[in-house]
Every structure is written in C-alpha cells, then in structure tokens.
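Subgroup meeting minutes
Present: P.N., E.W., G.H.
Scribe: E.W.

1. P.N. recapped why we're keeping a running log of single-chain structure predictions: easier to compare across weeks, and new members can see raw inputs and outputs side by side.
2. G.H. added today's entry (114 aa).
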Amino acid sequence: MREEDIELFSKDSAPYGVPYKQWLAKWWNWTQSLPTQEHPRDNYSPEKCAAGQRGPVWFLADALTGKEERTCTIPAEKAILAPTITGQCNYGRHMLMAGWSCYSLCHLVNMIYI
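Output recorded in log:
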C-alpha cells in the first residue's frame, strides 16, 4: 500500500456514511460479542484476527497486558479501527457507595493517562 492511499478519519467524520462515534460503539459491540476462547485479545494468534469481522471496517483488539506485537492479514479494501485506550465505566454498587460518579472516574482517568 502506498502512503498516498492511506486516509485517516477524524472524530468528526462519518466513514462509509456512519458517524465515527457509531464506529466506536460498533467496536465495543464486536469486542463484547466474542467468546474468550475466540477473542483475538486473549492468547493471540493470527487466525483469531478475523474473528467476527464484518463490513467495511476491520476491528483490531485491544491489548490487556501492555505492549504486544501482533501479525494480522487484513483485506486490502478494509478500513482499520485500532483502539488506543479502552475502558468501561459503570455504576456498580461499590462505586456509588463511595460517592464516585462515572463522570468523576473518567475525569480522573483522563488526568492520569492523557
């Protein structure tokens, strides 16, 4: 692939007619839908890279153990969505008891990691 063939999409774009935010939601749906034994995040192998892939955007799995080097064959016509930072915030009983809101926790994480 030539460098001039590469296109980056901004967070305000709508690749393939779908707003970028919805692509992020689709990534979360994809990553949550895969069983652990098939998930490319867990015990990675190049064969797992294609698990659950549908549509014009190829989702890459996050790495839970820090830095990893992976090999994956992606069809040439696919766009790639690679997460840089992932996390999940919910209103679990312990968080509410401690007086933390999801907004407060996300703000704290942004201060630490960004």
